[in-house]
Amino acid sequence: MADPRPRVWVSQPLFDEVVEQLGQHFQLEMTHAVTRYTPAQLAERLAGVDGAPITLNERIGAAEIANAPRLRAIANVGVGYNNLDVEALSSAGILASNTPDVLTETTADLGFALLMATARRITEAERWLREGQWGQWSFQTLLGADIHGSTLGILGMGRIGQGIARRGALGFGMRVLYHNRSRLPEATEAEVGAQYVDLDTLLAQADHLVLVLPYNASSHHIIDAAALAKMKPTATLVNIARGGIVDEAALAAALANGGLAAAGLDVFEGEPTVRPALLALRNVVLTPHIGSASQATRRAMVQLAVDNLTAALDAGPQAGDPPSALNAQAVADARRARAGVGGKDIDDAKR
Ligand code: GLV
Question: CB atoms < 10 A from the CB of 149, how many?
Fold first, then answer.
């Protein structure tokens, strides 16, 4: 007899022992090699399944789910979800989820590590040493910018931004300024040691500016040539959010012509391809999108995605109530509307 259990497809290798928990409730199809899918391949993989944990590599919109009548749940293993067209998923009655909180501190660590490496020219110094250029210790070699006591600017003050603020204010005695769509409650500002300012003030006053805001149409290229021109030429810029927030051509030009001292980038507009103009610069620290990449955190992210998917497919202890759903209300509305229009005929699989 055919296995009646819902089918789950796992798009990339994650942590097998965590993902295998899904086998308690579902038919499971794992992927054992890192894979790049075309949109057509993604559509084909999603066509016959009820749910899928996916990563930021997989971009899922209306076209990818058009032929997926059984699909009820997409669990993004990551906090940023600009790879998902949440509106399209909602209208199709597909519950989307992400993995917030579990990666906050690890990603804030990486943001701070990049800030320090960028300001103190760590990777440039190592390259110089490995190239055999260290003939004699000298007083004015590889001078960088101070971190302690400087002004830290944070653009985007969600959980990760707050983690970076704490590190700066409490650990390094920095004056911390932030800008965000909405201002934090005063008690939170006091707790993280940060002061709200408008965007122009942030750009003008930051010695080190860290970008931690979500990527969407309104944050696309928010750091463009005009924004960069407002920054101090001695400042550093760190991006741990999404590449598209920065106009990389303008950034490369500013770094090359002395408009900005240095940048630390963990994310890129065309990743995994990195713009040659950035690769050619010595005053840029480049990492391959590793913000949440600690052993413990990556495991916790997969566990949360497994819990989200299990609950979204109405199994496990939180059945029907995924811990971090992105569109629960919209999906409930869409499913109700379908039930109204089609009577009892609502796609049974999408109850
Ligand atoms: C990684 O960039 C994430 O959004 O989790």
Answer: 10
